[in-house]
Write a structure and sequence with these properties.
Blueprint lengths: L1 E5 L3 H12 L3 E5 L4 H11 L3 E3 L2 H7 L2 E4 L6 H8 L6 E4 L19 H8 L4 E4 L5 H4 L5 E2 L2 E2 L4
Parallel strand pairs: 1-2, 1-4, 2-3, 4-5, 5-6
Antiparallel strand pairs: 7-8
Helix pairs in contact: 3-4
Length: 148
């Protein structure tokens, strides 16, 4: 599968690492530092490339949105049309200092993302904590980390 990743922080790079190991093709995009994108792609290997958010969307069967909540509007504008795309989001609607919810209690990050990308099919999940995704092992004793 081809997966476009918008945001190459801990979650985007951690999920990308796992997907590349399973043979999926990745295109990373949307970073304040283009050299960071290149380093992430190089660390993952031949299954990873970089591009603009628009290129990542055009490349992808599925698009991962993994940016801080405060930049979702900018990231989605940079992505262009997501019509017909599956938009998998692991965005958490937290304030930048993590002191509370940025979206309040009457909506969710997924609902706000769906408003900004009306042609996309939005799926929201937080698969694992970034620390687990980026640790050398996903084992806790004799158990492997999983989520529902």
């Amino acid at each position: 599968m081809k997966i476009g990743i918008i945001g190459a922080g801990s979650m985007g790079s951690g999920l990308g690492k796992f997907w590349a190991q399973k043979g999926h093709q990745l295109m990373f995009s949307y970073s304040r530092d283009a050299t960071k994108l290149q380093k992430v792609a190089e660390a993952i290997g031949s299954n990873a490339t970089i591009g603009t958010p628009t290129e990542a969307v055009q490349f992808a069967d599925v698009v991962l949105l993994s940016v801080p909540y405060g930049v979702i509007q900018d990231a989605l504008q940079a992505a262009g049309s997501l019509d017909g795309k599956i938009l998998f989001s692991c965005v958490n609607a937290l304030l930048p200092d993590m002191s509370g919810m940025a979206a309040g209690t009457t909506t969710s990050a997924a609902e706000e993302i769906a408003k900004l990308a009306p042609g996309a099919r939005v799926v929201e999940a937080l698969p694992l904590f970034a620390e687990v995704l980026n640790s050398p092992s996903q084992r806790f004793g004799d158990q492997i980390a999983v989520v529902f």
